[in-house]
Amino acid sequence: MLFHMSIAAIDPHHVAEVLAELIGGEALPFPPVSENGWVALSDDAHGTSVEVYPAGTLLREAEGDADAYGEPGGVDRFTATHGAFGTTLETEEVLAIARREGWPAKYRKRGGMFGVVELWIEGRQMMEILTPSMQADYLATMTRANWGARLGAGAPL
User: Fold this and answer.
1) Distance of alpha carbon 91 from alpha carbon 131, whole angstroms
2) Which of 73, 109, 131, 151 has its Cβ near the most Cβ atoms within 10 Å?
3) Structural domain boundaries of the chain?
4) Following DSSP, what letter does each residue of 90-154 receive, concatenated?
């Protein structure tokens, strides 16, 4: 189970506000790693959240008995880091939010198994948003047994 993840954004406050809207939560300051960090915090039973740091923030391991810390680094346009988040909104509502923000978004069917709205935060950071029906398909297909069977059958992935 994923409790939280972090991403980087050009405008962390704004991105946290939009993510909070999508996951039914609230955007709050989150300064432990960066004084300009924000968090989109859901009110779900798992404390699901997305920490949003300024683009270019690097997490570093601290020496001894200390927490990891953030420091400025370079800004890459794209990253492999992404997540899939459930929403109570329907596809058209998610797409409307993306249009409002000027962020690219489209419906995609992943490997013929489950649908997602592929949302590109700030046009640079992918996030997969799953509506309630998409969540049901995801949960039905993304199991160890199903994935192993697809691999064993040589199914296209």
Assistant:
1) 6
2) 131
3) 1-76, 80-157
4) -HHHHHHHHHHHT--EEEEEETTTEEEEEEEETTTEEEEEE-HHHHHHHHHH-SHHHHHHHHHTT
User: Looking at residue 1, what is its pLDDT?
Assistant: 62
**Amino acid letter, residue 16:** A
Q: What is the pLDDT of residues 66-90, one digit of tens each?
A: 777 777 777 777 777 888 999 999 9
Identify which of 88, 125, 133, 129 has the alpha carbon closest to the alpha carbon of residue 106. 129
Task: Kindly report the number of other CB atoms within 10 A of residue 48's CB atom.
Answer: 21
pTM above 0.90, yes or no: no
Side-chain-facing half-sphere of 110: CA atoms under 13 Å: 16
